[in-house]
Each structure stands twice: as C-alpha cells, then as structure tokens.
Design the sequence.
C-alpha cells in the first residue's frame, strides 16, 4: 500500500524501513497543512491527524485506509469516509492511561485543596484547612465507557468509589457497578457526586450536558471533562460554578480553544483548567507506534 505519513505520528520516518518490510511504500509530510510530497492519486493509505482539514478527501481517488493518531474521529469527514468504505482506525487506548491519571489527579486536587496549600507554600505561610474531603464512597458516573472512560473507572474504583457507566452501547464490565444506556442519563445524574465526561462529540452528544442536566446533579458535585468541550454548555457550566451549585470542575477541553482570555473560568479557584493537555504521557509514543504497525501489518496480510 502507498502510504502518506505525517508528523502527527512522532517518529514516523524511523518506521519506514519496518513498513517497507511489510510490503508498503511510504512518503513523509511533516506539517499536514503543507503541500503533499506526492500526487494525491498515489496515496492509498494515510497515517495522520488533521490532514483532511487541509486537503480535500475527494482529491485522493485511491485512498482506502486511514489511521488517525487521535482517539477522536471529529477531524475527518466521516460521511464521505463511510460512503467510500475507507477503512478507518483511531488511536484507541493510546492516550487512555494519562487521561485517566489526569482526571483522578484533578479531582483529588479539588478534594484536598491542593491550590490553597501550594499558594501558602509560595507565601511561606503555615495555615491549616479543616474542610478537606475524602474521595472514598463518592458516587462516580462515567459518561462514555470506551477505553478512556474505563481506565477512569478502574482508578476511581480503586479509590473506593462506586462507579456507574453510561454509554450508547451498555455492556457488562467489571470496572463498573453497572452500566446504563444513554437514554437513562437523566435518572443517573442525581446519583452522581462526580461526573466524568469521556464520550465522543457527535450530533447526539453536542450540548448534552446543558443547564437542565447540570441542575440534576447533587449540590456540590464535581464535573470533569476530558472529552470535547462542545459536549458541555459552557455558559451553563460557568453559571453553575459561579453560584456554587457545583463545588468544582476539572476541565481540559473547551468549546473554543484556546479558551478566550476573558473567560471567567480562568480565575475560578474551584476549577482545574489545562490546555487540552490531559492526553500527554511518556508511554504514548510506544503505544501509538505499536498500534499503527499492528494495524498496518494486518492490512498487509489481507
């Protein structure tokens, strides 16, 4: 297969000999927005992230295989990919561990008032807090029970939290006390002390956590969003934090990225805010390379 590799796969160039040993031919493009190093008609497969945001999918007449370096599928024209029956792989499982660790760390930082103590350390002030919370026993709901959500469930369960899953395709899974269909979300929200969002952004999930659903959460609940910003109504979330309806939020993704400088979220003491960074981990490169080579090895054997 003729492969176009992009810089979205760190170390791609070093893997070209391994790909050639499988029978593939490869060219490399560092920046996906730049001109292609080959004719589009030459390309039969692509390993990329946002390539098709800059180059029209329809200009690749022989494309039959796409491997994304991201877990999300929202950067490819899915309707056209499906219409042309192009094989599509994402980076399922590659980023799940660091994202789950980030979420647990963020929630613990809120419960243990980490920001307060770091500020006092910088100031050289010895000052206690008597309002630290325990995580054990808090009811956790994971909305989106794929690889990321399940890694979150494993970690929160290990901390003594009963974890309920909500998913489009519920199943039996030992990481969860139970898993409910998305249609039952409204019944689960009042029992969710911590709500973790890990579901993909689709027409069905856009704005899913709106003002009405935020109001269904118990007073003092915490929301963690490591999915996509547009899954949440930002204005409604901001209002729920400002009024104290929610006790805190762990936010790595936003409807508009970068987050506008005038957003009130920047200065909220009860918000852990990061710039779409939760996926970063020192094990990612090895996991991604193993996944890509495995998928391409399977493709070469067909």
Sequence:
């Amino acid at each position: 297969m003729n492969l176009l590799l992009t810089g979205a796969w760190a170390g791609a160039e070093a893997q070209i000999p391994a790909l050639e040993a499988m029978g593939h031919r490869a060219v490399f493009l560092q920046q996906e927005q730049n001109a292609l190093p080959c004719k589009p008609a030459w390309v039969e497969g692509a390993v990329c992230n946002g390539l098709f945001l800059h180059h029209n999918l329809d200009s690749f007449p022989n494309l039959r295989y796409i491997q994304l370096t991201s877990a999300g599928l929202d950067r490819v024209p899915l309707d056209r990919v499906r219409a042309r029956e192009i094989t599509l792989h994402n980076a399922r499982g590659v980023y799940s561990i660091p994202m789950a660790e980030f979420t647990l760390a963020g929630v613990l930082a809120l419960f243990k008032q980490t920001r307060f103590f770091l500020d006092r350390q910088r100031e050289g002030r010895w000052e206690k807090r008597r309002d630290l919370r325990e995580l054990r026993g808090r009811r956790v709901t994971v909305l989106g029970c794929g690889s990321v959500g399940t890694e979150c469930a494993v970690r929160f369960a290990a901390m003594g939290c009963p974890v309920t899953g909500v998913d489009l395709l519920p199943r039996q899974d030992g990481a969860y006390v139970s898993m409910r269909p998305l249609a039952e979300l409204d019944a689960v929200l009042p029992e969710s002390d911590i709500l973790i969002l890990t579901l993909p952004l689709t027409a069905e999930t856009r704005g899913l956590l709106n003002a009405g659903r935020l109001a269904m959460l118990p007073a003092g609940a915490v929301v963690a969003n490591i999915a996509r910003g547009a899954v949440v109504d930002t204005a409604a979330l901001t209002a729920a934090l400002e009024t104290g309806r929610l006790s805190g939020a762990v936010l790595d993704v936003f409807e508009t990225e970068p987050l506008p400088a005038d957003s009130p979220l920047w200065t909220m003491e009860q918000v852990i805010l990061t710039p779409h960074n939760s996926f970063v981990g020192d094990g990612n490169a090895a996991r991604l390379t193993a996944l890509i080579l495995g998928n391409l090895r399977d493709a070469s054997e067909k």
Remarks:
- The mean pLDDT is 97.
- The two ends are 11 Å apart (CA to CA).
